[in-house]
């Protein structure tokens, strides 16, 4: 597989927002088929790296859905939106500045700790199960605009998850992949057992 040709094809497949904010790179040395990096808050470009030797072993529909899913996940990362964690970060920062001006070392430590808690929780919130399932569902919506039916798109993504694990010589799927697979089976009409709401929100 020619990486340049495939990158050009995948860029055409992406939604417009994906083409604007996502960069695809060839990484033949990586052991994973596809790596999506959680972008830090200061970086506009989201990086997706591919091992094209492994990538080329997947059928085209699976590649399409896996790429759309990766793009949906990266575009779903929102660092700057008003929420509790951002409030903690701002409050801690403002408190640290005030305490620094007053020369209160204990106050600075407490305010800094508050900001740290906010940063850690915000970082963790970007990897919740709910976000993973939402990325799958967003990819299916984009796939419909590319000519796939919802059921077929869900089936291709489901098969792609298993195929990647096989190519990477992983004997089993991880917990999140199992939940995603079950959710996709329901969407594809292959199962009626839905992922419980409590589990989705973990």
Main β sheet profile: 3 strands, mixed
Number of helices: 10
The fraction of residues in strands falls at 5-15%
Low-confidence region ranges: none
Radius of gyration: 20 Å
The ordered H/E elements are: HHEEEHHHHHHHH
| Beta strands, count | 3
Mean pLDDT: 83
Strand adjacency order, main sheet: 1-3-2
Terminal residue distance: 39 Å
Structural class: mainly alpha
Proportion of helical residues: 55-70%
Shape: globular
Summarize the structure.
This protein is mainly α and 202 residues long. It has 10 helices and 3 strands. The longest helix has 21 residues, at 105-125.
Give the helix/strand layout.
Layout: H1 3-13, H2 16-21, E1 22-26, E2 34-36, E3 46-50, H3 52-55, H4 60-75, H5 84-102, H6 105-125, H7 129-145, H8 150-167, H9 175-187, H10 197-200
Parallel strand pairs: 1-3
Antiparallel strand pairs: 2-3
How does this structure look, described?
With 202 residues, the chain is mainly alpha-helical. The mean pLDDT is 83. The protein starts with a helix and ends with a helix. The chain has ten helices and three strands; from the N terminus they run ααβββαααααααα. A three-stranded mixed sheet has the order 1-3-2. The protein has helices at 3-13, 16-21, 52-55, 60-75, 84-102, 105-125, 129-145, 150-167, 175-187, 197-200; strands at residues 22-26, 34-36, 46-50. It is 64% helix and 6% strand.
């Amino acid at each position: 597989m020619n990486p340049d040709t495939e990158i050009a094809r995948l860029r055409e497949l992406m939604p417009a927002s994906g083409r604007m904010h996502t960069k695809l790179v060839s990484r033949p040395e990586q052991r994973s088929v596809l790596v999506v990096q959680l972008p830090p808050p200061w970086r506009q470009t989201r990086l997706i790296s591919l091992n094209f030797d492994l990538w080329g072993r997947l059928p085209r529909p699976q590649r399409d859905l896996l790429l759309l899913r990766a793009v949906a996940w990266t575009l779903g990362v929102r660092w700057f939106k008003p929420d509790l964690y951002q409030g903690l970060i701002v409050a801690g920062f403002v408190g640290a500045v005030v305490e620094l001006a007053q020369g209160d070392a204990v106050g600075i430590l407490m305010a800094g700790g508050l900001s740290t808690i906010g940063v850690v929780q915000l970082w963790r919130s970007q990897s919740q199960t709910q976000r993973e399932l939402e990325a799958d569902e967003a990819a299916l919506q984009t796939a419909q605009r590319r000519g796939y039916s919802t059921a077929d798109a869900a089936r291709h993504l489901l098969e792609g998850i298993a195929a990647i694990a096989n190519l990477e010589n992983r004997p089993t799927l991880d917990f999140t992949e199992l939940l995603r697979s079950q959710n996709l089976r329901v969407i594809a009409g292959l199962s009626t057992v839905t992922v419980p709401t409590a589990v989705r929100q973990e």
